[in-house]
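Quiz preparation item.
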């Protein structure tokens, strides 16, 4: 099921994509669940496999500018400049869609979210398939994103035709999503820090914090959630008797008294912390703990994306935690 990206396996994967199947593949952010973005039936399989609601549009992945021009109808100059600077890489741009992109991919929106990944396996798969790939993160809807092939195998193994091995992903958080309107809006924090975009775009409207209505499911208050209840807290806020049955997701220092502690970055490096975030949550979630406490990190650079994911993973106060044994994402 999980296969190394040898030329033979890449060819097999490309063949699966061309015939309308599903292939999970590594990108520099998280693993994606890919299908031919120009084939409505193939894209429908993604929604089925992820148990993803149809109002949640997919990101389309391209390998070159030729493919980009098949999926978008127009590239405004500001998008051109961003692509020049950040592509291939973890920046997703929301642009006017072409007629060739089926409505299921964009959930009926007149725009399409598109990015050019920079992982060699992702690029090679798209090139060999010869079509753009619609690919959300390869996890059941609402659950933790996969940063390793084994996460995909565990969560979606039965529903994917092939999983390409690419080791642990580089960034560990999803791409940053920008809607290029007047003014541009940051729709999702991700692997490109907002500060880097603002150099080019000027002050960004932070859609994530400032908009009331969820525009993208990545903005739903609860998303990226483990099954174990998770709470944001500094270690000193957790009473000693609570620590014994709880896990602690630490930023850099190891606190005392917890049943298990995972450290995101011993040196306090936010890039390293982001890369370890989902892996650490996957590990903690498998231990049957009563509670996971997660330590806040500074909101700068990759810290914005980390805090965004942690806040959404934390169950909102007062909400009942999902029952154990229930399929992930069904809450
Ligand atoms: O890093 C990533 O972006 C990963 C890898 C696999 O490339 N993909 C990913 O896809 O995170 P997904 O489906 O988990 O997140 C896609 C987000 C969704 O929240 C979706 O609503 C938003 O992109 N989106 C897609 N099309 C959009 C559109 N036309 N307008 C606004 N948001 C859109
Ligand atoms: Mg996702």
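Solution:
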């Amino acid at each position: 099921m999980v296969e190394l990206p040898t030329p033979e396996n890449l060819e097999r994967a490309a063949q699966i994509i061309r015939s309308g199947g599903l292939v999970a593949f590594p990108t520099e952010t998280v693993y994606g669940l890919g299908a031919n973005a120009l084939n409505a039936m193939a894209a429908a399989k993604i929604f089925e496999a992820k148990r993803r609601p149809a109002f949640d549009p997919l990101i389309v992945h391209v390998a070159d500018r030729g493919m980009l021009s098949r999926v978008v109808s127009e590239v405004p100059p500001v998008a051109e400049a961003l692509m020049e600077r950040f592509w291939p890489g973890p920046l997703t741009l929301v642009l006017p869609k072409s007629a060739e992109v089926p409505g299921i991919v964009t959930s009926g929106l007149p725009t399409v979210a598109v990015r050019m990944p920079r992982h060699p396996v992702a690029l090679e798969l798209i090139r060999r398939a010869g079509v753009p790939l619609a690919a959300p993160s390869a996890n059941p809807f609402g659950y933790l994103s996969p940063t390793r092939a084994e996460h995909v195998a565990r969560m979606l193994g039965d529903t994917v035709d092939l999983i390409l091995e690419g080791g642990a992903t580089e960034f560990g958080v999803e791409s940053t999503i920008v809607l290029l309107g007047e003014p541009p809006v940051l729709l999702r924090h991700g692997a490109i820090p907002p500060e880097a975009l603002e150099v080019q775009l000027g002050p960004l409207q932070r859609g994530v914090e400032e908009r009331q209505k969820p525009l993208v499911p990545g903005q739903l208050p609860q998303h990226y959630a483990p099954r174990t209840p998770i709470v944001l807290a500094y270690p000193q806020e957790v009473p000693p008797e609570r620590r014994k049955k709880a896990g602690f997701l630490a930023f850099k220092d190891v606190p005392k008294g917890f049943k298990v502690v995972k450290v995101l970055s011993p040196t306090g490096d936010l890039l390293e912390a982001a890369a370890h975030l989902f892996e650490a949550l996957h590990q903690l979630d498998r231990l049957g703990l009563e509670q996971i406490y997660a330590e806040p990190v500074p909101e700068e650079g990759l810290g914005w994306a980390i805090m965004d994911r942690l806040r959404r993973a934390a169950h909102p106060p007062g909400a009942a935690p999902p029952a154990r044994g229930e399929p992930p994402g069904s809450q």
